[in-house]
């Protein structure tokens, strides 16, 4: 079950401080990389909720992100709806699609669940690729960003947009914690540990899985709406299974089922990608080797390794310090 | 409270449950005896809905629940414990009980509150933990506690849903004599209005707890009566080769 500890709080504060510092001081290229990290972080949070806390390893989260991106582009562009409402509509639409996928796939497990979600993802990709209304393989360009000038924020400015994404990521992280600590999240954890027993106790398992998958899809859809505004252009490639695969790599790289880990993974992955791609076009090979090393090490990703190494020690020190501050502790010292 | 009418189930050519008709009154404690392969666990699986019968019906509190899935039967008050521990191993004892209690209180699927922090859930957890002697282990992970404690938890999780009928599949399976004595007390201290159907090989426990005894052999009910009648039954001696009386 999800639980924050001192180390997790510390890493969260460090990540937030680092992102804020970068958003306030970086130049254009740095801001673009930061925004890319923030949007990817949102997608991998969505994936970690279902995969890390529900055992539902999805290969359609890229497609759900794409659904959010296309829905935003259509609602804000062709339908002429106010961008704020278009964003809410995109989030709701991708959540609805995700709920249906979750409900259908809920009865499958393991490799069958993965393949079923992959099939849904590829169906969405093919549909968008062939659809003239959605721009086919040319995609849709000229997507406008939200207009927040009324509150004095110009999102066409890269710095403002990065800060906007950071704020939304913070909200999404908070919402993810609430989901996992809710009755629904606790039941999801029960399902992951023992689905048969949860059913025998009276839980409608498919419904819980579908509900959480839907919520996760809403987050993926929000990431998509932001991605569309970030690049102001979308193409079917956004829905490709490789995007889902990349998100899964990031979650595993960072630490499955930790929420904090995928954020670490998103930073590591995007930084590695940009640094290594400047040196060699074969940068995927190096990322692959790192991923294999992480998996073979049996640590739960980068953050899992950090937590296994220092987590218990930090908790002990915090507990000791707390005990010393209490009157009993003072008495025993004396 | 719980009734089966001509319940039958076959796996291929093998008929494992043959026209089983049982009727348990509210608060009745019935023990099901029978040799290995007699179809006792299959009967449980049919009762809770994990298996679908080929013929016959299951009635809970007067309602025909034969067509209902496992979860719906559980929500109507039919709970079970398993012969092989079926727990949430990565979670604590308290969380195991809490998940079950949250299902009873209706907090298990709520999005805006933590089910395990709800006072009514915590109250049930504390009460059940007291009932099945789990208080000292509440904060331990299931993987860290002894086998005997897990058997107690197995029963506790089933109890935390506040069932009308509790089916217990060999609750003392694999536990030593000391722990087995503890189970005698545990079962005898359960609320008298709770209907119990127990599969048990421990004859002492069976005769200590049971109001009535049903014996299955080759999927068929071959004896249905009071414990004292069961002790004198020649048929039962043949089935069990006289093992418990000789012992």
UniProtKB/TrEMBL annotation, chain A:
Cell membrane as a keyword? yes
Query: What membrane topology is given?
Result: Multi-pass membrane protein
An annotated GO cellular component of this protein is: plasma membrane
Transmembrane parts of this sequence: 35-55, 62-79, 85-104, 111-129, 161-184, 205-227, 247-271, 283-306
InterPro entries reported in the protein's UniProt record: ABC_transp_permease, LivM-like
Query: Where can this protein be found?
Result: Cell membrane
Q: Which UniProt keywords apply?
A: Cell membrane, Membrane, Transmembrane, Transmembrane helix
Major location category of this protein: membrane
Single GO molecular-function term? branched-chain amino acid transmembrane transporter activity
- Cite the Pfam families for this sequence: BPD_transp_2
Q: Which domain of life is it from?
A: Bacteria
Q: Which PANTHER family match?
A: ABC TRANSPORTER ATP-BINDING PROTEIN (PTHR30482:SF17), HIGH-AFFINITY BRANCHED-CHAIN AMINO ACID TRANSPORT SYSTEM PERMEASE (PTHR30482)
Name used for this protein in its record: Branched-chain amino acid ABC transporter permease
From TrEMBL, chain B:
Q: Which residues form the ABC transporter domain?
A: 2-243
- Please give the Gene3D superfamilies that the UniProt record associates with this protein: P-loop containing nucleotide triphosphate hydrolases
Query: Which GO MF terms does the UniProt record name?
Result: ATP binding; ATP hydrolysis activity
Q: Which domain of life is it from?
A: Bacteria
Q: Name one GO cellular component term.
A: plasma membrane
Q: Which UniProt keywords apply?
A: ATP-binding, Nucleotide-binding, Transport
Pfam entry (one): ABC_tran
Q: What is this protein called?
A: ABC transporter ATP-binding protein
* Species: Aliigemmobacter aestuarii
Upper classification of the organism: Bacteria, Pseudomonadati, Pseudomonadota, Alphaproteobacteria, Rhodobacterales
